[in-house]
């Protein structure tokens, strides 16, 4: 058996080693034998093996080739581990669920922090094929995801995530729980996609454009920040004050802005 590989900075590798945090994450996920579990970034398997033991099977997506033989060998007596060697951002979760013949996936992972926001946006795109997600992230990112209007950290991530999912911060994890310790505090969050019938019906591209433009210049009034996309009359039609700033708007306000018919 190969010895454990040295954690690679370029892959955002910080391996979780403290048993009590591993147990808390697995308990929060509470895997059942009929779940179709997908883990993003199994690393050396800190979460993989307890999840596999509880669910009996698991699909893990790992980019680092060097980690795969060890994962495969260690899984042999635990359960059915299927490893997808790929960049998670290129994995089509909807197609994965379809191929597996299941309506929904349960996704988990101690995410590589260097691409945590792109991974979150990628998962949101496939929210209809996901029943829940449990992620370890930088605490600062979890704070932004769960932030409410008026908070300093409320922004694009808060609005887009809250329009797609219920965001439930669970608990914090200190740097010492990882090898090597990251420079930041971490936190575990649960995301539960909003049922399709309860989701907003704005055009997703338009919504994204409006939210991005509004927060790109968060010190400006909406009238100024959205000038390229809609005029002040259109903003008023959405029942929003053009003199307001993006950070004071609720996610529902952004949906109304995205739904206003504009001349352009
Ligand atoms: N789950 C392990 C643990 O808790 O100890 C490892 C977590 S480590 C923070 C992140 C993992 O994601 C590493 O195994 C890394 O190789 C993997 N990874 C990094 N970039 C990835 C990508 N684009 N797609 C899939 N996995 C990736």
TrEMBL record:
Q: Where does S-adenosyl-L-methionine bind?
A: 14, 16, 41, 62, 87, 110
Entry's Pfam families? Answer: RrnaAD (PF00398)
EC number(s) on file = 2.1.1.182
A molecular function (GO) held by this record is:
16S rRNA (adenine(1518)-N(6)/adenine(1519)-N(6))-dimethyltransferase activity
Residues that span the membrane, as ranges: none
The UniProt catalytic activity note for this protein reads: adenosine(1518)/adenosine(1519) in 16S rRNA + 4 S-adenosyl-L-methionine = N(6)-dimethyladenosine(1518)/N(6)-dimethyladenosine(1519) in 16S rRNA + 4 S-adenosyl-L-homocysteine + 4 H(+)
Outline the extent of the Ribosomal RNA adenine methylase transferase N-terminal domain: 21-195
Keyword annotations for this protein, in alphabetical order, are: Cytoplasm, Methyltransferase, RNA-binding, rRNA processing, S-adenosyl-L-methionine, Transferase
State where the protein is found.
Cytoplasm
Keyword Protein biosynthesis applies? no
**UniProt entry tagged with the keyword rRNA processing:** yes
- What is known about what this protein does? Specifically dimethylates two adjacent adenosines (A1518 and A1519) in the loop of a conserved hairpin near the 3'-end of 16S rRNA in the 30S particle. May play a critical role in biogenesis of 30S subunits.
> Per its record, how is this protein called by name?
Ribosomal RNA small subunit methyltransferase A
Species this chain originates from: Dyella caseinilytica
Q: What is the lineage of its organism?
A: Bacteria, Pseudomonadati, Pseudomonadota, Gammaproteobacteria, Lysobacterales
Q: Which gene encodes it?
A: rsmA
